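Sequence only, no structure available. Ideas?
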Amino acid sequence: MSNKVIIYSFHTQKSKKVAEKIIEAFGNENIVAVNAEELTSEIFEKNDHFILSAPTWFDGELPNYWDEFIPELEDMDLSNKTFAVFGLGDQQGYPENYCDAIGILVEVLEKCGATIVGKIPAGGYTFESSRALRGDHFVGLPLDQENQAKLTGERVKRWVEQLKIEMR
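Reply:
I predicted one. C-alpha cells follow.
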C-alpha cells in the first residue's frame, strides 16, 4: 500500500468529485483511494498519512460508514500518523451545524493520538456554528458544493499545497 491514502465513499457524487480533485492536485504523488464503506483496521496500521472525507449528513451527523467504523477506530493507536479531513456541508440549509462531521471525526482521531493537519482560516464562509471550528480556523477543509461550488477548485489546490508541506 501507499504511504498516503484518501478515504471517501465511492458511491457518492460530490465527495467523490472532490476526492478526485485532491488526488489530481497532488500530481505525481502516489495516493491510494480506499472506499470508506470497505474500511479495515489494516489500512490504518499499514499507512502513515490519511486524507479523509467526512460529509455532514442531516443535522450535523457522520455518514453511516463512519458511524459504523468509529468503534474500531477508537481502539487504535494513531500516534505517529497524520490526518487531514475534508467535508461537504451546506452553509445556507444547515448553518447551525456546518460541516460538523469534520469536527466529529477530528475529535475521535485526536483521542487516538493522531496528528491533525490541513487546518484553514474560517474567512470566506457564512454559517452560525460548526464543530469543525476552533477559534478562527477550521480543523479541516469545509466545502459547500450547494452554495460555493465555484470556490472548490481553488480551495482544494491551496489545501493540497499546504498538505504537501505538512505531510512530509
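The chain has a mean pLDDT of 96.
Hope that gets you unstuck.
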